[in-house]
Write the structure tokens for this entry.
Amino acid sequence: MLTDGRLRAAARTLELAGVGAGDLAAKPGDAPTFFRPLKLELQAALKEGRHGSLAAASAAEDFAARLEKVFSDMALLQAPPDRAALEALRLLQRACAAAPDLLSTSGRKRASLEVRACCAEGRKTLALAKAAAEGAGFPQNLKFCSIYSGLDAALDSLERCAEALFKA
């Protein structure tokens, strides 16, 4: 049984964000409502737990904020995710699904490899799409470069959180 509130909240944030990413891709304007309870749970958990779990909770908080911003940008710019963004979100979902196993003694190595592979593949997909978008018109380039950069930053935060969960 997991007794450290920080680790529990961090793992729960990753897991629920992964589950919700598909729905948020279809309705990105729902991001603030979706992420509010997760962020509140993390803020409450930051007050408790072992010293080593602070890095995981802080990285999960950063991940949630960055992913919420991606969806908020999609809604604000009226730019639904394109094929590359959807692929990056699918990989993010796979990584988030593996994250709870980072706390298990038997599955942590496999989960760590899965998270790192998904994040690397997601960043590669976004880099290729960003390079291709540079040839598009200015408004389209601006919209998607912002979304791609945000997703890239969310993947980095996810990987940092996974590493902290693995080390906890």
